[in-house]
Design a protein that fits this description.
The structure is a homotetramer of 147-residue chains.
Chain A: E1 18-24, H1 40-55, H2 60-65, E2 69-79, E3 88-98, E4 102-111, E5 117-128, H3 139-146
Antiparallel strand pairs in A: 1-3, 2-5, 3-4, 4-5
Chain lengths: 147, 147, 147, 147
């Protein structure tokens, strides 16, 4: 990809329904460059989608309790800046796409104070049943996600 | 991205020059799904590119010692399967693209025993100088990367 | 240490001044045993002492900005139970001992809902100056810690 | 504990049977202090005891496959120095104590090149059966550990 070319991931429209959760950057999440390690954002995406589910009325843990799992099949992350230890950030999660077996979440990591977007991300998940085969998500879960 | 559509990241040709490093999956790197956490692969990519640099005759730490840093600007990861605790895996890293200020590494995570590719990945890095401005990489570093 | 023998770490009296911070257990922090990885608590201790400092009116980052660092010299952790993904826990931090060059924090990890203590911990830190030599902490920092 | 007072953890005699495993410090394992994060050592202890088990002829995963788990009940760690990104270290693990339900591992983290001990540690583990109750470890496992 050429520099300057915008990834689809950046082009998210803002009017979508999203769920915010505040996170404070931990010392453990920094590296010797003095800012958050690039892998820390990937963990924060997970915090974001957990919170998205909770805001929609269920816990991702319930889905696992019903014998399903959402395995990540695709991850994209675009870094525009960095965040520092002790900084308060916002993980903003929205539902980007939903099919019966597949769900895509979009993320933005923002500085709480300035609302500047530092990182854009996206994860795509495939629903697996107990046997590890692709499966439709339970109806209750699907309808809550869309709510 | 539509299902079935292949990401560029999968299409890497195998004849390129790559560097392998063995990694054993740690208990810490698993999650309650019983396999490696999706963020663990991102850490392994970093292990892979560190090893790539070492195989080319320098340490990434030297670059930092010279006052430069390679910040990640883009991360892509495509999961085809999963690996388990104690499994021996190979992180296979190659140089995908190199410009004076920007370097792109490609990765494959393989099961050591079967050589099955479990995860494909890619990271793009921008070189920053001491002041935090985009900068050409030192000549020595560039020539070693290409070697 | 014989079983049943109580560690000093358990005997903390409760009337001390402490600072609480809520943490929700992340999926990344679990392992294949289905509960939080034993190393996750160590990270939460760090979250706890960062919050302790903030509650006392400064950021640990400021201390680093002044050219000092608090290196951990001793860590103890006693596990009485475990916590699960998505569980809301409390990290309760108190000042256990303070000398001009050395500070000891005590921690308790509690389930938010039941207030049951799951883990007891303690970290001891030595203050180093810019040259990496043991040093008294700045007066401002000392007085705030005791406040 | 007074400064200078030696912890039992330091007094390990060297003639015991131990198992070594090399680990290279990852960038992810550093923090903004420029050295390995204090929680990284705790992960390396786990790498050490996994390797100890393997050297004795079984995988810790097998024990879990038989329906048992070794939960950590106690962790101690004493830091004498620090290690840096890309440094090659040795995790040296020995069996410190073994009872039918309880096993204690001792650890030393050494710089590979100088064999200087940087960190001493100890973890104590209780064996639980499928129901989560304390249980004797399987005979096969016990005899291998002692071998």
């Amino acid at each position: 990809m050429a520099r300057g070319e915008s990834m689809a991931v950046d082009k998210e429209v803002d009017h979508r329904d999203y769920v915010d959760v505040d996170v404070r950057v931990r010392y453990a999440e920094t590296d010797q460059m003095g800012v958050a390690y690039y892998g820390s954002y990937v963990v924060w995406f997970e915090v974001g989608r957990s919170e998205y589910c909770r805001a929609k009325g269920f816990s991702y843990g319930e889905l696992e309790g019903m014998g399903y799992g959402l395995v990540v099949v695709d991850l994209r992350c675009r870094y525009k800046g960095s965040v520092k230890y002790d900084e308060l950030i916002v993980v903003r999660t929205h539902l980007k796409d939903l099919k019966t077996r597949m769900v895509t979440f979009g993320y933005r990591i923002l500085r709480k104070e300035t609302q500047e977007v530092v990182v854009y991300g996206e994860t795509r998940h495939l629903c697996l049943n107990k046997r590890g085969n692709p499966s439709s998500m339970p109806e209750k879960f699907l309808s809550r996600l869309k709510s």
